[in-house]
Design goal:
The chain is α/β, with parallel strands linked by helices and 126 residues long. The protein has one domain: Response regulator (Rossmann fold). Helix content is 42%, strand content 20%. It is globular, with a radius of gyration of 13 Å. The relative contact order is 0.18.
């Protein structure tokens, strides 16, 4: 079974993604903040990380901290990342994103369900 970690501070977004992906038989783990995301990445292997790059308390810096820490976690260092976030089209974020190999796709919120599913299926080889 394919496993996805959804990291987003908005409960409605997490639930919408969870419901969408469970219909496609994905196993879902959710995290609402950096601590929960890192804990999950340390304890389970994921096929893809679905990440809101702009998270409390420090906005996009928090999202990039998750990505930096992920690189040091052997279980998920190479896990592909799909970013789904608001306001990702800024020069600062785009520069940082281009430096991270594991990011395979970036979507602005709101994202079309079909586009998100295509990207996740592609990453997971479905």
């Amino acid at each position: 079974m394919r496993k996805v970690l959804i990291v987003d501070d908005e409960v409605n977004v997490r639930l919408a993604f969870k419901n969408l992906l469970e219909q496609r038989n994905y196993i879902i783990k959710q995290a609402r903040n950096q601590a929960e995301a890192i804990e999950a990445l340390k304890n389970e292997i994921f096929d893809v990380l679905l990440l809101d790059i702009i998270l409390p308390p420090d906005g996009w810096k928090t999202g990039f901290q998750i990505l930096e820490k992920k690189k040091k976690i052997a279980l998920n260092a190479a896990t592909p990342v799909i970013i789904v976030s608001g306001k990702v089209n800024s020069a600062a974020i785009n520069q940082r994103v281009s430096e991270i190999d594991s990011i395979v796709k970036i979507f602005d919120k709101p994202v079309e369900s079909t586009d998100l599913l295509k990207a996740i299926d592609k990453v997971c080889g479905s």
